[in-house]
Every structure is written in C-alpha cells, then in structure tokens.
Write the structure tokens for this entry.
Amino acid sequence: MNILIDTHAIIWFLNGSERLSTTAFYVISDDRTNKFFNKACVWKIAIKVKMNKLHLGFFFDDLLDKLAENARIVLAKEFHHIQSLITLPLHHRNPFDRMIIAQSIKEDLPIILDNKNFLLYPIKLL
C-alpha cells in the first residue's frame, strides 16, 4: 500500500498521540506500506514550533531522523504538482494543504489526515 501522510498525522504518529486512529497507526507502522510525506510538512512544523502552536515530544533538530525512520520517500514540490494547484477549486486556502492535495491527485496516493476540508476534493482518504 502507498500512502501520503499529512503533517498532523506525522506529528501524532511520532508523538504517540491517541488522536491518530488505530487504523492509521497500523498502516503507518506497517513496513510493507510505502509512506510518503511532503518536504513542506517540515517547513510547516518549523513555523508552528516557532509560533508556539506546536510542541514536539522531541527536539526539532531530530525531526528529519524521526521522519526517515518512519517514511521511505519524501515528495518534493515538482512542477507537475504545482501545475495541478491551478486547477484546484479554492475550497481550502492553506498553501501547505493544497500542495498535499495536489500531490495526492497527481500521484494517486490516499492521504492519512484529519481535515474535513479535504473531503471537498477528489482524493482518497484513510
């Protein structure tokens, strides 16, 4: 199985939060799952940490190592992902989330997330 992991789901998984569903936890934990995340998630996490809107259960400097332990592939912002942003309706204006939506569509990846706004787009959710 291939999945794209949203920022909140990554944080909840790494922190062992009960906010992550049991199904999502097992899918992310499964070594047979190809787990993707967007580099922009690291940027989003850094912004939230700096603004004191997010407290990690570990040092920010350890984030990349923790991500590498749990996700196999990092999706960069490729031009074809950015191109697809133009065609997305503006149901949701968060640029980080819109990039994840575009990547989900272009790469045909279901997303592990907790955001009702994503339901307005033609994507697969877990």
